[in-house]
Design brief:
Layout (H helix, E strand, L loop, with lengths): L1 H8 L3 H18 L9 H10 L16 H17 L3 H12 L7 H18 L2 H13 L2 H18 L4 H5 L1 H4 L1 H14 L11 H13 L6 H5 L16 H21 L8 H31 L11 H17 L6 H20 L7 H7 L7 H7 L79
Helix pairs in contact: 2-3, 2-4, 4-6, 5-7, 6-7, 6-8, 7-11, 8-11, 12-15, 14-15, 14-16, 14-17, 15-17, 17-19
Length: 458
């Protein structure tokens, strides 16, 4: 291995990086059947000649110019595009960009961000698929850094290029799902700087409105037996999107409060964002309903929580802190809107089996929140004992259809025959009433027979 290193030192940086990539392909491709793995010497070559972390302090490395760096990214794009075996692609990508906890990680992340950004620009689906797997298995702190690179490249630096990023949903839905999860973890509304840009919000809402199933791709395609590393992104972006919908009205009011005099936020932009968050809220509720179908088909209803109680508890704490920060007298409408959305989402999530939480635990979680009529209705529902199996019957429909008074009720038990009445005395014959006008057909109009169209809270 030392001979290979000395030979690489005599080459220019671009040629040496190409040679290491070729060596990596041979080393991992041949051992793929027996179990992928890299020896320490190969890892050192990758770090030294691709990510430019010198092995020896006294060794002076030839740095790549910007043009050479761009050429190396093109070489990587071509390699992953031309590699026909998906397993080899995934192993090589993991070998290059798996974080080792050393000083080469910063260089890895810098190269990864540029490579994925280029893959988005030139639509290299194999790289996007590998990046989707990387986002699924890497700690969320690194995932949000990759998401920030893409947001900066396509939403901030060159705003008109966001249309290029928007095409990712059709090119690689898996990557799109993971990217949504990453950006919801990045923009958590903890400050005005961590509020999603309007262009990003519009793109995410457009993706989900067009195909709500996009949010469930990672969850559906992940085997239940697989254990993901601690601290990685959640299986679905539902918790993050729910945070967006609930905290958006409060964050908007906070931005108005902290705005400098004479530099008020644009009203037109605010109205557009409110409409987008309203659409997003409706889409999240629809995805919960779709999730119930999947959980039922897989016999997981009541056994697998998709929306974790810990995530709900964290959201409630964030909302409570944000409410205390605002003036309730001046932000009453925004507070009630946020709590209405939270109550709706909790009710639908519990009713569909996505959130396994008893009403008693829910009352404890929400005890610090201000009073809200809808939230009180949700918390005052039937109490399910802690740890009991999920029972859909404890979540009755809000508007059950009323049975016809002429039809027998199927749930009534058979009644015992009544004793015969004693003979009655004969009454005097009554004079007949005049004929009534004909009645309309039965149930010509009944509120319960009308379709109830859901309208999101705005």
């Amino acid at each position: 291995m030392s001979d290979i290193r000395h030979a690489l030192l005599r080459r220019d940086p671009l040629s040496a990086a190409k040679e290491v990539l070729y060596h990596l392909d041979i080393a991992l491709g041949s051992t793929l059947q027996t179990g992928p793995g890299l020896d320490k010497n190969t890892v050192d070559l990758v770090e030294e000649f691709i990510f430019h972390v010198p092995k020896d302090r006294n060794t002076q490395r030839k740095r790549m110019s910007c043009v050479q760096e761009l050429q190396l990214l093109e070489i990587m794009c071509s390699y992953f595009q031309e590699q026909s075996k998906d397993a080899v692609r995934q192993v090589i990508f993991s070998a290059l960009f798996s974080l080792q906890g050393n000083k080469a990680d910063e260089n890895r992340m810098a190269t990864l961000g540029k490579l994925v950004s280029m893959a988005v620009a030139v639509c290299r689906v194999p790289i996007l698929e590998c990046a989707a797997t990387w986002l699924q298995r890497t700690h969320s702190a690194w995932c949000v850094r990759l998401a920030l690179v893409l947001v900066d490249d396509y939403c901030t630096l060159v705003p008109g290029s966001i249309a290029t990023l928007q095409n990712v949903s059709s090119a690689s839905p898996r990557f799109c799902c993971q990217l949504i999860t990453a950006v919801t973890a990045l923009y958590d509304f903890s400050s005005d700087e961590l509020t999603p840009p309007p262009s990003l919000l519009d793109m995410v809402v457009g993706w989900i409105t067009e195909d709500p199933r996009l949010l469930l791709l990672t969850f559906i395609n992940t085997p239940l037996s697989s254990s993901l590393p601690l601290g990685c992104l959640e299986a679905t972006p539902l918790a993050g999107l729910l945070r967006w919908c609930v905290k958006a009205p409060l964050a908007s009011q906070r931005a108005r409060k902290s705005a400098v005099t004479g530099v008020q936020p644009e009203q037109e932009n605010g109205a557009v964002c409110e409409e987008l968050y309203s659409k997003l809220h409706l889409s999240v509720l629809q995805v919960f309903l779709m999730l119930q179908v999947h959980l039922t088909e897989q016999n997981l209803l009541g056994r697998l929580a998709v929306l974790q109680v810990e995530s709900v508890a964290a959201l409630v704490e964030e909302v409570s802190a944000l409410v205390e920060e605002l003036n309730p007298l001046h932000a009453a409408n925004q507070i009630q809107l946020a709590l209405d959305r939270l109550a709706q989402a909790l009710q639908v999530a519990m009713a569909t089996g996505a959130l396994l939480c008893s009403r008693e635990d829910l009352r404890t979680l929400c005890s610090r929140l201000p009073h809200n009529n809808m939230l009180q209705l949700v918390m005052s529902g039937p109490v399910v004992p802690h740890g009991a199996a999920f029972q859909p019957s404890v979540y009755p429909y809000i508007h059950p259809a009323r049975p016809s008074p002429l039809s027998p009720h199927p749930s009534h038990p058979a009644l015992s025959p009544l004793p015969a009445h004693p003979a009655l005395t004969t009454h005097h014959q009554l004079t007949p009433h005049p004929a009534h006008s004909p009645l309309p057909p039965p149930h010509a109009f009944h509120p319960a027979s009308m379709a109830f169209q859901y309208r999101p809270i705005r």
